[in-house]
Automatic annotation (TrEMBL):
Keywords noted in UniProt: ATP-binding, Cell membrane, Copper, Copper transport, Hydrolase, Ion transport, Magnesium, Membrane, Metal-binding, Nucleotide-binding, Translocase, Transmembrane, Transmembrane helix, Transport
Family named by the database record: Belongs to the cation transport ATPase (P-type) (TC 3.A.3) family. Type IB subfamily.
Gene Ontology biological-process entries: copper ion transport
Pfam families named among the record's database cross-references: E1-E2_ATPase, Hydrolase
GO cellular component labels: plasma membrane
Transmembrane segments: 65-83, 238-257, 269-289, 565-586, 592-615
Organism of this sequence: Levilactobacillus zymae
EC number, UniProt record: 3.6.3.3
PANTHER family to which the protein is assigned, alphabetical: CADMIUM_ZINC-TRANSPORTING ATPASE HMA1, CHLOROPLASTIC-RELATED, PROBABLE CADMIUM/ZINC-TRANSPORTING ATPASE HMA1
The protein, known as: Lead, cadmium, zinc and mercury transporting ATPase / Copper-translocating P-type ATPase
């Protein structure tokens, strides 16, 4: 940073001296312009020469860069007495270079800002219930902490006492605070509201969700897209070609076109400026980093810029059902009582029995039904059959339809109709007489339908992959308009389905959140993990949505396509300007000053075009 500040001061000094020199008498003007050229171009010249020497040693061959071309052009302009043009060249080139450094440093500043949010101290509770201030790095799993109002949560953990309203913007990108209570997970770096609570540590500071975010963004910065990587490899080869053409251009000017020595030298210098690939080199990197930075602030993380660029080529996308396209929490959708049933008494029995079960359906049932009084019951839970209890001499049974051998025709028909809709059926019987039918279904996640519609409209094949039955999968598929449903799939077969898709489509993505999704996420060209998912799924994924908000996925896809469009625009503009300047130079319709303005002006336009992605929504 100190080096950059020094370079900027030298540049500004050169800019000021350039303006003053233009006002000086002719005898003094040349000296002022020479000094302005040296001051403004010192940073880029020194950096270019150092990079050229370092790269040449590393590759064991001459590996020049654009800075060397600009230095040679400025030096040539000075040799033929064009001092003003030499100074102007260095001023505009160095200015464009500083702007590019700003664009590329934007993501680094985002990382610095993230690291500044990392908590450093925690209030640890001792065995004597006293509080000691300790470094977050010294916390161990199982430590008990106190978090006061206004404190940052020190590390990931679970609330054991109290309630909280926590701002999780550093994790999810959403500023709306979330209410937390005993048993809820909290994340390091998030901000506690106006209440205090106690928590137990579940992850060390190196393993927290926030630490994973920082690591992902840092890694993405060093792994850019395929276009950016190609340009970086192409640049030294291009510069070598330009250097090799310089003597050929001069000889052509001097002997083939029969220009004077002075004109030939002048036109060779203009060619050197025109042919330099400054805009070409800036076509992809600033835009890619701007896109990564924008999405990181929205809670969308990539393990490399190549994933962001590859996302634009997506041809097929597969979704896990539970927890991805659905809420992962079954809800009661239908309730049907027998004509002879006593709803009040049976509701009390139902809730009393289901509260002694840990099945996910039991949670949905107890949340839906409200008892009038608690009933102490001895409940037997038989795996594969259901719950049984005795009440006033009657046997109360709760289970799936297969647990009841003889079902009335009307009940069997209702079960068939509801099952065809993808719903799960639970029955309650008194002495084998069906008194209550409950249908449950895992409802689609918020924005799931809009997400599937978006990809369908983009002519991207959509598929639902689920371990549930075909009827359940097809019911959700119809509701969301998914193009194809694969049901009854095991983890290994999910990966095989993705492999089959890859034989049909060039780029295939898989979206999931569980351990059973990990093989498919790893198999896909782009594995996308939901932030509420397991660590295993997140570890193997190429892209992570820090919240279970599928609109972030469509935003990322739209941004990736905009990125590719901007890169293509930049490449076309850069090549057109180079070709135009070369033609104008041979027609003697441009000079060094206009060559510098047009060439470096195109570089500024390319950089600013890429920076637009910082504002993309």
């Amino acid at each position: 940073m100190h080096h950059l500040n020094t370079a900027m001061r030298l540049y500004l000094s050169g800019l000021l001296l350039f303006g003053i020199s233009l006002l000086l008498p002719a005898p003094f003007q040349a000296g002022g312009l020479l000094l302005a050229t040296g001051l403004s171009g010192y940073h880029v010249t020194a950096e270019g020469l150092q990079d050229t020497l370092r790269a040449s040693r590393q590759h064991r061959q001459f590996t020049p860069n654009i800075h060397l071309l600009m230095f040679l052009a400025a030096f040539g302009a000075i040799l033929i007495g064009s001092f003003r043009e030499a100074a102007l060249l260095m001023l505009i080139f160095a200015g464009a270079h500083f702007l590019e450094e700003y664009a590329e440093g934007k993501s680094n500043r985002e990382i610095t800002a993230l690291l500044d949010l990392n908590p450093v101290e925690a209030r640890r509770l001792t065995a004597q219930q006293t509080v000691e201030l300790v470094s977050v790095a010294d916390l161990a799993v199982g430590d008990r902490l106190q978090v006061l109002n206004g404190d940052q949560v020190p590390t990931d953990g679970t609330i054991t006492q109290g309630t909280a309203v926590i701002n999780e913007a550093t994790i999810t990108g959403e500023s709306l605070p979330r209410e937390k209570q005993v048993g809820d997970a909290v994340y390091g770096s998030t901000l506690n509201g106006d209440s205090s609570f106690q928590m137990v540590v579940t992850k060390t500071s190196q393993e927290t969700t926030f630490a994973q975010i920082v690591a992902l963004v840092q890694h993405a910065q060093t792994s850019l897209g395929t276009t950016a990587t190609w340009i970086e490899r192409f640049e030294p080869r291009y510069v070598k070609v330009v250097l090799a053409l310089i003597p050929l251009v001069f000889l052509t000017n001097r002997f083939l076109l029969d220009w004077t020595l002075a004109t030939s030298l002048y036109r060779t210098i203009v060619f050197l400026i025109a042919a330099s690939p400054c805009a070409l080199a800036a076509a992809a990197v600033p835009a890619t980093l701007s896109g990564l930075s924008n999405l990181a602030k929205q809670g969308v993380l990539f393990k490399g810029g190549h994933t962001l660029t590859e996302l634009s080529d997506l041809q097929a996308i597969a979704f896990d059902k539970t927890g991805t396209l659905t809420q992962g929490q079954p809800q009661v959708t239908d309730v049907s009582w027998a004509p002879t049933a006593d709803p009040v008494t049976l509701t009390n029995l139902l809730v009393a029995m289901e509260r002694q079960s840990n099945h996910p359906l039991a949670t949905a049932i107890t949340a839906h039904f409200t008892p009038t009084e608690p009933l102490p019951l001895a409940v037997t839970n038989t795996v594969g059959i259901g719950l049984q209890a005795t009440y006033h001499g009657q046997v109360i049974a709760i289970g799936k339809p297969t647990a009841f051998p003889a079902l009335p025709v009307d009940v069997a028909q209702t079960i068939h109709d509801l099952t065809a809709q993808g719903k799960t059926i639970v029955l309650l019987a008194v002495d084998q007489q069906i008194q209550l039918l409950i249908a449950l279904m895992d409802r689609p996640a918020e924005h799931a339908a809009a997400t599937i519609t978006y990809f369908n409209q983009q002519q991207i094949h959509t598929e639902l992959i689920t371990g549930d039955t075909l009827l359940t999968g097809q019911a959700i598929g119809r509701q969301l308009q998914v193009q194809h449903v694969s049901a009854n799939t095991l983890p290994a077969s999910k990966a095989a389905l993705i492999a089959a898709q890859q034989r049909r489509f060039k780029t295939v993505a898989m979206v999931g959140d569980g351990v059973n999704d990990a093989p498919a996420l790893a198999q896909a060209n782009i594995g996308i993990a939901m932030g509420g998912g397991t660590d295993v799924a997140i570890d193997v994924a190429d892209m992570v949505l820090m919240t279970n908000d599928l609109t972030k996925l469509t935003t990322a896809h739209r941004l990736s396509r905009r990125l590719q469009l901007i890169v293509r625009e930049n490449l076309v503009l850069a090549l057109i300007v180079v070709a135009l300047l070369i033609v104008l130079n041979f027609l003697q319709l441009t000079d060094i000053a206009w060559g510098v303005v047009l060439h470096e002006g195109s570089t500024l336009v390319v950089i600013l075009n890429g920076l637009r992605l910082l504002l993309f929504k």
